[in-house]
């Protein structure tokens, strides 16, 4: 289990240079033991040096207590241990000092140099001590024992703490690196989760906007024609029963077409609900990607209108009493589904606006197939009777032109609309043939 950098900073509650109180207690205990050891070893040192015993004890106590600052100044501890090696004291301080030095993040050349000095000093002192013992007759072994004892003793007091310190230091640095990497990964995962949530929200908004445009086109055009035919049916029901029957059949056909397109929109909504149900069992990033994929997949799978149905669309407006003329220029060829659907919807919404705001006006629908684009224009003349625009009492939400512009711009096209000099209205759009 890892901790974050903030938690480690909050955990630094020890006194002075210690990170924790337990570290201070450990170093204090080691310094106390080292001071006692050096103080005891100062007695024979004082006798050999010909100085008062009390001076040797005090010197040993002071030298041994240097181990208290091993974490703050490890180099000083090792140097003191090397300095008192000729006095044959400070063995614990030398071992602990070398271990602490090896665990620190110091240049390797410094660690090797100090370790070599400690090894050499211990070897010389041991060599001299063993020779003195053999000269006094305390040891009766051969001459081979002098170098063997000095080398073995120096290596035993230097190599184990040095190697252990290098291992612990490397492990400590590795753990710190892993903690930093874990913190970095946690931040990256949090950032990815936030981006996934933003992407999911963007996908939902885009899908809601698309569905709103589709619903507006379906309801506005089909229902507008149904209202126009219903008004005509009411006017000719008694005068011309045959025409009334035809209008009633047209109203039924348009209603069925409207229901079919509305059913397709409901299918897209159900696909979005399936993605929402997955949010409870999948990670947020996967849900965000699924939401975006489902939105695009639902848009692709939904069968929309195409340009081949444009004549039927114009014919429906003509049957509703609109004087409409359709002209097609260039070589007819298939386009991407979204291009054909957008072109169809632009013409459909423009005709719906003519029904709403200029009923009875002469209307021209022009479609041009060009090399790298497809252009369409719907232009109507001024209505013959200004009051006829509201004869069928068709409501207007003001979103038709906005929806057309959004559709065209989303495909990288250009959309222009506005009144003409003659008093009519013109809608023009150019869409790249992707």
TrEMBL record:
SUPFAM superfamilies: ATPase domain of HSP90 chaperone/DNA topoisomerase II/histidine kinase (SSF55874)
Keyword DNA-binding among record annotations: no
GO cellular component, one term: membrane
Keyword Nucleotide-binding: yes
GO molecular function: ATP binding; phosphorelay sensor kinase activity; protein dimerization activity
EC number: 2.7.13.3
Catalysis performed (reactions): ATP + protein L-histidine = ADP + protein N-phospho-L-histidine
Domain of life, per lineage: Bacteria
CDD domains: HATPase_UhpB-NarQ-NarX-like
PANTHER family: NITRATE/NITRITE SENSOR PROTEIN NARX-RELATED, NITRATE_NITRITE SENSOR PROTEIN NARQ
Name this polypeptide is given: histidine kinase
Gene source species: Streptomyces griseochromogenes
């Amino acid at each position: 289990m890892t901790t974050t950098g903030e938690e480690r900073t909050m955990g630094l509650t020890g006194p002075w240079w210690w990170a924790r109180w337990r570290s201070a207690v450990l170093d204090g205990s080691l310094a106390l033991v080292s001071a006692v050891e050096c103080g005891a070893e100062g007695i024979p040192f004082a006798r050999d040096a010909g100085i008062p015993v009390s001076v040797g004890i005090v010197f040993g106590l002071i030298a041994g207590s240097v181990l208290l600052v091993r974490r703050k100044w490890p180099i000083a501890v090792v140097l003191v241990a090397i300095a008192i090696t000729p006095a044959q004291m400070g063995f614990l301080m030398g071992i602990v000092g070398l271990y602490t030095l090896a665990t620190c993040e110091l240049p390797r050349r410094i660690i090797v140099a100090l370790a070599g000095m400690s090894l050499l000093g211990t070897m010389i002192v041991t060599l001299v001590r063993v020779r003195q013992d053999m000269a006094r007759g305390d040891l009766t072994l051969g001459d081979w024992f002098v170098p063997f004892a000095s080398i073995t003793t120096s290596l035993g007091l230097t190599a184990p703490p040095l190697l252990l310190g290098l291992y612990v230091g490397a492990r400590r640095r590795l753990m710190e690196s892993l903690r930093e990497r874990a913190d970095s990964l946690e931040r990256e995962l949090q950032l990815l989760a936030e981006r996934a949530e933003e992407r999911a929200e963007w996908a939902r908004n885009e899908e809601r906007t698309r569905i709103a445009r589709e619903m507006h086109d379906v309801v506005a055009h089909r229902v507008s024609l149904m209202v126009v035919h219903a008004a005509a049916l009411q006017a000719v029901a008694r005068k011309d029963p045959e025409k009334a029957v035809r209008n009633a059949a047209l109203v039924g056909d348009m209603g069925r077409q409207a229901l079919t397109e509305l059913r397709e929109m409901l299918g897209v909504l159900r696909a979005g609900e399936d993605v929402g149900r997955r949010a409870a069992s999948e990670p947020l990033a996967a849900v965000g990607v699924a939401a975006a994929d489902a939105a695009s997949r639902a848009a692709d799978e939904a069968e929309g209108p195409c340009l081949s149905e444009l004549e039927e669309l114009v014919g429906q407006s003509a049957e509703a009493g609109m004087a409409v003329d359709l002209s097609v220029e260039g070589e007819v060829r298939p386009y991407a589904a979204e291009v054909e659907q957008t072109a169809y919807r632009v013409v459909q919404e423009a005709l719906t606006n003519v029904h709403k705001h200029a009923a009875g006006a002469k209307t021209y629908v022009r479609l041009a197939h060009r090399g790298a684009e497809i252009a369409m224009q719907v232009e109507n003349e001024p209505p013959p009777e200004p009051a006829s625009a509201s004869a069928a009492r068709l409501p207007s939400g003001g979103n038709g032109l906005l929806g057309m512009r959004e559709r065209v711009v989303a495909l990288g096209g250009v959309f222009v609309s506005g009144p003409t000099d003659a008093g009519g209205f013109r809608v023009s759009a150019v869409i790249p043939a992707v």
